[in-house]
Design goal:
- By secondary structure, this protein is of the alpha/beta class.
- Helices cover about 35% and strands about 30% of the residues.
- It contains 11 helices and 15 strands.
- A 6-stranded mixed sheet has the order 7-8-9-4-10-11, with helices on both faces. Strands 1, 2, 3, 5 and 6 form a 5-stranded antiparallel sheet that branches.
- It is elongated and about 75 Å long.
- The structure holds adenosine-5'-triphosphate.
- The site of adenosine-5'-triphosphate has 12 residues, from strand 2 and helix 1.
């Protein structure tokens, strides 16, 4: 759906994006992660033809960008850097200005399409207040509604939950997951690890303009071949498990083993009370910190 080859952007002496090879596949919820200033927005802007690359190639929906922008952009829903809206118009009127002709773009069903889309992002279709009275979170929802209006195959979203409260973040997450289940591929940038961990199937991590990691989330967070055991008899357990114990601290042991039930049976048979046991997994924070360690 999106692929780039050695994509690079310089602003004078600053290399904002440094030879990135993105690979976003059909059906992905792809999380493009990076700290502030790491080059996410610049990358997203290049994908959409909003800024020219210094060098490298971009393909979106199988077509070269920005050369094929006129054909590609109508197929994409995009939300970049705070939604733009006419402040003196209502949300409905704003969407009518961007509605143009989609695949299903006749005027007769425009009102219903706009109402449905507002409803989908949690905005009240009958709210006629001008958008200038909206909170940042409401504007963000409106921007998302504009991106969804044409029922795109691909959504490109720069920090889509920016400015939303926890409830709003959850609603948008659920909406995006529903859209994805219905076949929409989603590429979103974020600096929020938890958001990406809960939503994405594939991630790319950018650090100082370079893509330092790109993989399936399930692969990155796969079991580590270690079991975590919590017991108040940790000394006794360590004695029993011997050289398999890799670490012991505060009643928690890390044991080299693949099957927690086998270790559990062994401990219980010896009369050691186990309060918690399970495979040790890395979380996304560990993965990202390791990838960006300098
Ligand atoms: P944030 O999360 O803060 O938006 P980001 O990961 O999106 O950060 P970018 O906005 O892409 O990062 O910025 C990457 C680098 O390029 C930064 O050092 C930034 O200062 C620089 N940069 C971005 N746009 C310009 C510009 N128009 N002119 C000069 N430098 C720029």
């Amino acid at each position: 759906m999106i692929s780039t080859h050695q994509l690079t952007k310089r602003f004078g002496p600053v290399i904002a994006v440094d030879g990135i090879d993105l690979d976003v596949r059909d059906g992905d919820v792809y999380g493009f992660l990076g700290a502030n200033g790491s080059g996410k927005t610049t990358t997203v802007r290049m994908l959409l033809g909003l800024v020219f690359a210094t060098s490298g190639e971009i393909e979106v929906l199988g077509q070269s960008m920005p050369a094929s922008a006129a054909a590609v952009l109508p197929e994409i829903g995009a939300l970049v850097e705070g939604p733009a809206a006419y402040p003196y118009l209502s949300a409905h009127a704003n969407l009518a200005t961007v509605d143009a002709a989609g695949p299903d773009g006749s005027r007769s069903n425009r009102r219903r399409r706009i109402d449905d889309t507002l409803d989908q992002v949690g905005l009240d279709p009958s709210d006629h207040r001008p958008v200038r009275t909206y909170s940042l979170g409401m504007r963000q929802r409106l921007g998302l509604a504009a991106a969804l209006l044409r029922r795109p195959r691909l959504l490109v979203l720069d920090e889509p939950t920016n400015g939303l409260d926890p409830q709003g973040i959850r609603e948008i997450r659920e909406l995006l997951l529903t859209l994805n289940a219905d076949g929409t591929t989603i590429f979103l940038s974020s600096h929020l690890l938890a958001e990406v961990e809960q939503m994405c199937t594939r991630i790319g991590v950018v650090d100082q303009g370079r893509l330092v990691l790109q993989d399936e989330l399930a692969t990155l967070l796969a079991p580590t071949g270690r079991i975590e055991v919590h017991t108040r008899q940790s000394e006794w357990a360590a004695e029993l498990l011997g050289s398999r114990v890799e670490d012991r601290r505060d009643g928690r042991l890390v044991v080299v083993a693949d099957d927690a039930s086998v270790v559990n049976a062994e401990l219980v048979a010896a009369g050691i009370p186990v309060s918690r046991i399970g495979p040790l997994r890395r979380d996304l924070e560990d993965v990202v910190l390791e990838a960006t360690a300098r």
